[in-house]
Every structure is written in structure tokens, then in C-alpha cells.
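Morning run. Coffee first, then this:
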Amino acid sequence: MARITRKELKTDKFALEVGQTVSFFEEHRDEILRYGAVALVVAALIAGWLVYQRHQRTGREEALAKAILLQEAPIGTAPNSLGLNFVTQAAKDQETTKAFAALAAKYPGTAEGEVAQYYIGAIEADASKMAEAEKHFQEVAQHGNAAFASLAKLSLAQIYFSDGRDAQGEATLRDLIDHPTALVSKDQATLTLARHLMLKRPAEARRLLDPLKTVNGPVGQLALSLYGQLPPQ
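And here it is:
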């Protein structure tokens, strides 16, 4: 079975999206404190409920931000600027999985809970625990919002191809091509499918790559790179 790493399963855009929770509290610190003060004096039931909802949401965001900081902590003896580090990858995986699992269990059905499920799947895949990873990605694909579900499906497709379920992987990627989201674009799904079809079906991979070769930026560059790896016609 081919090894799939967390780097392959994550995208820079996704990391940016969930990473925004880290800066949320610095940007909204006064607002959060103000709402906390209001909760102490407002007697009306509806106002109290709205404050409670706000508190729950920011609590989820804070828990996710803390878990992501653990996930991004370096391996080695030198801690980062936040004082975080792990001696071994195994120790880091154990601690981060624990943090994400606690978040997912405490906030099921929320965006933060689904992001936690995705991260656990990525950690499991990085450790070549594909069956466990697939379960977590399936959870996000079935219950997450459209954007996070699409990212989980992209990861599932790579697992399917890695263990010989090519038809299932292709069907998943073609569905993503037909239904792009903010986190998985049509071009990204197309490039992924072409990469997996290159050896067995080079003519189909070439057909997928042809319209992308002239696209400006990283998409066109990657399309050209993959095109150069195709066997001669």
C-alpha cells in the first residue's frame, strides 16, 4: 500500500482557513470580554440565550486553535515561540490526537468538531493507519459542511487509489470536479485525478491536463509538470 502523508492530504488553503481561528481572539478580544460582561447583567431570556450561543462558539474556536497549535509544534529539543515542542513524532501524534478527539467528542456536529475529525484522519494516514483514517474522513464527508466534506472526499480518493480501489477513487474525484467548493477547486480535483490516471490511462490523463496547461499560476505549472511525466503517445 502506498504511503500517504499528511502533507498530501492537507492543502495550504485549508490550513489558512482553519488557522484563522488562532488570530480570532486577538482580533475580537474586546468584543468577547464585552459579551462576557453582558452575560452577567442581562436578565431577558433571549439575550441570555444569544450570549450563551456566542460563548459556545468562541469556546469551540479556542479549543480548535489550541489543538492546531499543538499540531504545528516542532519536533526536537528547541520549542517554538509559544514554548511548544515534542521530542518525537509519536509523542506529538499522541498528544494532538488526544486534543482533537476531545474536541470532536465535546462538539459533535459543529464545524470545529468536523475539522478535528479531519485532522485525526490526517494524523492516522501519516502513520499509515489507513483504515482508521478512512473512518474519520468518511465522518467529515458525510456530516461536515460542503467545504470540509469536499476536502475529506479528496483525501478519501487518495486512499482509494492507494489500495487499488481505482474506480471508487475516480468516481469521488469526478464528483468533486462537478461540485467544486472553496476548499477543493475544480482544477485541484482535476489535477489529482490526472496524477492517478497517468500510468494506467495516460490518454485520459492527457485529456484532463490539456486545458490546464495554459492556466496562469501554480495550476498551469503543475499541469505542465504532470504532462511532462506522461509516456509518449
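The CA atoms of residues 150 and 184 lie 6 Å apart. Good start to the day.
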